[in-house]
Structures are given as structure tokens and as C-alpha cells.
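Quick one, C-alpha cells below:
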């Protein structure tokens, strides 16, 4: 690849990063700049762009939790939104084409309208997931629903890409069903790959050879194969580590995809004008999101925050449009228009996403009127009941504290943990535990603090989460005692400064406990040393 292309792509991404915009905006701008100066898309860039899309689909498959997608609030809202927004945006495009005299719009046909509306109905997986991670709200109910909707949209996109090939699968394609019983063996192979360069090479090989290559060989779209390959490995605990290992590599290849979009065609005044008109479709898309989330019994706050996070257009829409262009279903100039629309939507979505909480506080009462009287079971207020001791974080330390308070002191104890699997296991073992993430503002927004609670124990593994929980308790004028556990000595004072009544250092307390236990076994007596 030409070093100039690499250098310009870096400059574009770096400038976007400094301006706190998604770097892909800079990569797209770099492609347009290179196009302006006479550079053309090479076969190497096209190949690397295809690899980026394949790895993106593979990593989505690695994170695909079927249990999450089975929630009606996820698959139902995603399906309904796709149908309603595609229809509404298609009507919008037809109306605009009749009112505005622009050649590209006036030539648009029925199928092209539907393809454009379909591409614009997607929201950006990369943008939304990054925004949720920055605010530590990926595990909130609205965050899980938003991510689930994005995954459903990705599946719809892959289905379109597979169907668009226009060729019938090979009769031998039925043999691909053998991958299902072979999944445990493949997962074991992934585990044996360990970490480091072998793990990365395993991921790339599995995505490109087993996923893309094998499915293409049997007459099925390779992109769909990459998604399926990721899904085969997803149930194993090592899949998360593999997804993280491939994260930067996948992003590196995707740079070529966004640069290649800019290299294919230069924006004209007409394409810029059409992009500005289509940007208004965000209002339609946002309204449909809000309607569907409320319809599926989400709280007003959850509905608003999920809607604002998803109010953007998607890089996956560009991928769908690129496939449609390659099949001759769309004119190449529409790909340029959609690139501009997606880029502009990110610029608009950034402040909306960051200011979501403030917007909800301003208009929350109005929107609360439309809430269902029977809210989604995971979005209902969290009632602590008659608990006297609440333990936030039910890892080994939290479980030990729970046992001690419940059995040695006879107190009514309630545990809170954010891991669904752990909560189910503890409940089956007789623990009184509920699912919730105390490091997430959504948890505290739903929490009904009971006057019977005398003690809250902060046993979460992350120091930042414990600090956040103390601030939330003090903001709610909690009058009880707050105890916290830390791993490092320099974490003690910040907790005390924020209002912790008791702070325990894990290793110091464990050492003291070990000494007391050993002394008791041997028969040492307590002595005061002057």
C-alpha cells in the first residue's frame, strides 16, 4: 500500500480523535482528500477492507449472547423498529424526491428507495458500544437492550448480504451443519491457543478460513460464515479474551474500508445537499425507537437513554450499501451520499449521547405519562425489602461477608451482583441475591432505599465502582454505616474522604485473621507488648 495513503489516514484519524469525534470520520475524510489529489482505490486496499468487514462480523459473533436476544424487548423492538423505520424513511425519501429537483433524487426507483431506507435504519455498533463503555453503562438494562438491538440489526444486515449474492448454495452446504456438534472441539482448540500471537492467529484463521472461506466454497456468502464462526465459539469463556485480542487488528483493517469509501467517489454539491436532506430522517428514526421501547414496557428513562444512544446512522449501513452497489442495485454516487450522512450523524449524536441524562431530567415527567403500568421485569424499581445488611458485590469476599452476617449475627442480608450467571448460582444455593450493577447510575435511579438498612458493604472488585456507590449513597442521605473493602493501601483514604465509615485492607485483614486463627489452634495467649 502507498505510504502516502497510510500517512493521510493517520492524520485524518488523529485530527478526529483530538476533536473528540469518532476516528472513522477522519478516515473517511482522508479518503475524500486522497481522491481529490488523484489517488485511486487499489486492489490491496479493497482486499484489506474486505478482511476488516469479515473480522468485524466474526467479533460480533463472538459476543453474541443468545439469551440476551431472546428477550422480547430486544428482538421485538429491533424487528418492529426495522420494519417501521424502513417504511417511514422510504416514504420520507419519496416525498423529498418529489419536492426537491435534484437529478440523483429524481432518478431513484422503488427498489432503490427501499435499499436506502433499509441502510438508514441501522444504528452504529461501534459508536454506541464505545459511548456506553465510556460511561460504564454497558451492563445497564437500557445498555444491554441497545446492544441487543444493534446485534439484531447486524444479523438482518448479514442476512441481506447473504441473500444478495444471487447464487444458490452448493448441495454440499448441508455439511456445514456438522459445525454445530464440532463446536465443543473448536472451543477447546481456542482455549489451547492461549494468549498472545497464537491466539490472534487462531482468531484470524478461524474467521477467514473456517468462516469466510468454507462458506464461500459451498456457495454461501462468506460474511455470513464469519458471523456463524464467531457464534460457534461464543459460549466458551475464552471468547471474550479472543474478541479483545482481535479488537485493534479488526479496527486497523476497517480503516481501509472507510478510506476506500472516500476513494470511490468525490462528494459533489448535489450529494452534499441530498445528505443534508436525508439527515432529517434521524428524527423519524429516533421517534420510532422511542415508540417501540415504550411499547415493550421499558421505563421512560431507559427508553430515552437507549433512543438517544441509537440516534445515528451506521457503518453497517455503508457496508449494506457497498454490497448493493457491487450488485448494481445502487448507483455509486449514493454510497458517497450515505458516507456523508453517516459522518454527519456521528457529529450530531455525540452531544446527544453525552447529554442524555440532562435531557431526561428536563422532559422526564412528560414522557413518564406514557410508561406502561406493567414495566419490564428487569426495568422495575429495585426494592430492598426488609434487609438490614446490603452487600454490593458477591464475589468471594462478598459471599464470606454474607455468610458471616447471616449465620453468626443472624441479620437479614441482601446481596447485589451484576453477573447474571453468578446471581442464578447463588440463588440456587439459597442466597438472597438480586441482579444489579451498583457502578451504574441506572441501578441507583431504580433503587428504593429501605429505612431498615443499617449497613452497606462495598465489596465490588473495582475501586472506581465502590467510590461511585458511596457518592450515590451519600447523595440519597443514607444514614446507616458504610463499610468498604480495598486491595491496595492507597485506596483507603479516598473512600474515607467520601464518607466510608470503615475500610478494610484485604491482605492486612487476611494476615491478621490468619495469625489469630493459627494462634488459637496452637494455644497462644494474647499479650500486650509495650
Amino acid at each position: 500500500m502507498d505510504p502516502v495513503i497510510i500517512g493521510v489516514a493517520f492524520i485524518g484519524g488523529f485530527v478526529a480523535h483530538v476533536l473528540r469525534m469518532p476516528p472513522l470520520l477522519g478516515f473517511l475524510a482522508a479518503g475524500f482528500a486522497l481522491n481529490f489529489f488523484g489517488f485511486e482505490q487499489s486492489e490491496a486496499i479493497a482486499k484489506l477492507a474486505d478482511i476488516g468487514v469479515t473480522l468485524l462480523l466474526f467479533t460480533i459473533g463472538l459476543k453474541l449472547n443468545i439469551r440476551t436476544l431472546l428477550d422480547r424487548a430486544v428482538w421485538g423492538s429491533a424487528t418492529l423498529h426495522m420494519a417501521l423505520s424502513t417504511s417511514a424513511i422510504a416514504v420520507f425519501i419519496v416525498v423529498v424526491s418529489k419536492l426537491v429537483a435534484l437529478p440523483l433524487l429524481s432518478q431513484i426507483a422503488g427498489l432503490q428507495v427501499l435499499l436506502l431506507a433499509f441502510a438508514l435504519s441501522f444504528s452504529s455498533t461501534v459508536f454506541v458500544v464505545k459511548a456506553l463503555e465510556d460511561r460504564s453503562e454497558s451492563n445497564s438494562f437500557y445498555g444491554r437492550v441497545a446492544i441487543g438491538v444493534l446485534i439484531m440489526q447486524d444479523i438482518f444486515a448479514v442476512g441481506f448480504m447473504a441473500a444478495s449474492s444471487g447464487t444458490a448454495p452448493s448441495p454440499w452446504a448441508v455439511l456445514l451443519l456438522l459445525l454445530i456438534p464440532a463446536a465443543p472441539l473448536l472451543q477447546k482448540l481456542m482455549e489451547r491457543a492461549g494468549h498472545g500471537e497464537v491466539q490472534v492467529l487462531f482468531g484470524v484463521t478461524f474467521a477467514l478460513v473456517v468462516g469466510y472461506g468454507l462458506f464461500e466454497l459451498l456457495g454461501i456468502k462468506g460474511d455470513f460464515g464469519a458471523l456463524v464462526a464467531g457464534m460457534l465459539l461464543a459460549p466458551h469463556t475464552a471468547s471474550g479474551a479472543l474478541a479483545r485480542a482481535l479488537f485493534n487488528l479488526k479496527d486497523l483493517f476497517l480503516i481501509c474500508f472507510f478510506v476506500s469509501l472516500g476513494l470511490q467517489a468525490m462528494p459533489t454539491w448535489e450529494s452534499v445537499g441530498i445528505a443534508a436532506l436525508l439527515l432529517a430522517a434521524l428524527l423519524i428514526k429516533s421517534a420510532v425507537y422511542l415508540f417501540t421501547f415504550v411499547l415493550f414496557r421499558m421505563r421512560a428513562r431507559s427508553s430515552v437513554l437507549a433512543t438517544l444512544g441509537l440516534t445515528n446512522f451506521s457503518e453497517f449501513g455503508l457496508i449494506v450499501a457497498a454490497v448493493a452497489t457491487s450488485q448494481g442495485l445502487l448507483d455509486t454516487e449514493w454510497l458517497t451520499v450515505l458516507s456523508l450522512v453517516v459522518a454527519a450523524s456521528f457529529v450530531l449524536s455525540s452531544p446527544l449521547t453525552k447529554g442524555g441524562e440532562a435531557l431526561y431530567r428536563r422532559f422526564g415527567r412528560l414522557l413518564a405519562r406514557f410508561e406502561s403500568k406493567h414495566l419490564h421485569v428487569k426495568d422495575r424499581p429495585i426494592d430492598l425489602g426488609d434487609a438490614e445488611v446490603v452487600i454490593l458485590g458477591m464475589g468471594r469476599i462478598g459471599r464470606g461477608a454474607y455468610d458471616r452476617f447471616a449465620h453468626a449475627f443472624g441479620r437479614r442480608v441482601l446481596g447485589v451482583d451484576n453477573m447474571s450467571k453468578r446471581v442464578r448460582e447463588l440463588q440456587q444455593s439459597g442466597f438472597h441475591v438480586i441482579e444489579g450493577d451498583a457502578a451504574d447510575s441506572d441501578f441507583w435511579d431504580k433503587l428504593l432505599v429501605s429505612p431498615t438498612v443499617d449497613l452497606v458493604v462495598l465489596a465490588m472488585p473495582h475501586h472506581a465502582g465502590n467510590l461511585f456507590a458511596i457518592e450515590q449513597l451519600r447523595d440519597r442521605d443514607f444514614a446507616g454505616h458504610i463499610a468498604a473493602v480495598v486491595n491496595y493501601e492507597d485506596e483507603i483514604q479516598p473512600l474515607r474522604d467520601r464518607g466510608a465509615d470503615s475500610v478494610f485492607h484485604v491482605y492486612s485483614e487476611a494476615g491478621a485473621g490468619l495469625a489469630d486463627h493459627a494462634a488459637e489452634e496452637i494455644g497462644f495467649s494474647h499479650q500486650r507488648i509495650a
